[in-house]
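Feature request disguised as a bug report, sorry. It would help if multi-protein outputs had a clear separator. Right now it looks like this:
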Amino acid sequence: MLARLFLIPAGLVLGSAAALVFLPLATLFDPVTREAWGAFGSVNLFAALAHGDDALLWNLVNLGAAISTALLAICVVPLLITALLGEAARVRSYVWYAGAAGAVAAIMPYVLRASLHTRGGGDKATAEPTFVMLFFLTGVLAGSVYWLIAGRGSMRAQPRPNVSSKE
């Protein structure tokens, strides 16, 4: 039981760290996502340059806040939700941790869009399936790392109750 108190946070930290490394690298290597991020960044940068120095600083701060919020929502929150539910239900299946974290990460853009009351469209519609798949893979990686650290060996640590009919 004491080992679980160390393994669960270590799994969460290392799983989230793996996702935080994977997602930016994967977006750089995929041409569709690289083009979408480039268009997003250049629009904000050119708009800021047109309005002066103060606007540039505020747009860079807003861009940094948007990117950090997206990374948190895609790399950390899905793993945290999956781990909390899995630990509460004592699920030890790799399919649960990898699949559920991937599914939650894949739906996060839709949850964020719904919470911000914005609509998609235009050129984003062509890149959206690529982003969803990339977010799913990010969640699968995070869930896999968590399972390797905190999930797979925990069944041996917890003895099964002895159920017998000899009472």
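(second protein starts here, but nothing in the output says so)
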Amino acid sequence: MSSNIELIIFDFDGVLVDSETMGCQIWSDVFARHGMNVPASVVMEKYTGKTGTLICSLVEQEYGYHIPEGFLDEVNETTESVMAKELQTVPGVLETMPLFSVPVCIASGSRPKRLNMCLDVTGLRPFFPENTVFSSHFVKNGKPAPDLFFYAAEKMGVVPEKCLVIEDSSSGIIGAKAAGMKVFGFLGGSHCTPARGVQLKESGADLLFDDFTKLPELL
């Protein structure tokens, strides 16, 4: 496959950094502060991979809650505060990143400020200069729309069919496939369960793997 791949596009949360369990709990905690009961398990199952704005919209639709003004800012500020102290990379990431022979970039639903902060605190910055870090805040529609993947490929100068995407969420898998890209489902984060593997396969993942250090071999 390596001769066909000219760019690897990584999702961020749950693929490069082990943030999903932490992030989902923060969302649930902030909901609770405002009298809304949205368990972390529900955030994990239904909303991972989506933008904060979309999560708020979906919760309003599905639960009938009114999301107050400033809510998303509170989520973002709490997330950044906690992750600046506690965030770690997914096992195997730091030692494996130097081994890739093709360019790499990030395509994430997280906002640019948090992405760049997390890259700095986890030691991932040397592998991802700011001009290789793409957020759904740069495009009209976040995942599961393909917009962000098209945007990343265009900015990196690679046609979609020569891109490989690494994703841990159904919305990311669906978006990557809609962009005409190969996509591997990654199950190495602490939040991943066998059920998630089934979910990613059903969403269209070309391959599933759970050990980041094996990725160079899979190429």
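Even a blank line would do. Unrelated, but nice: The chain has ten helices and six strands.
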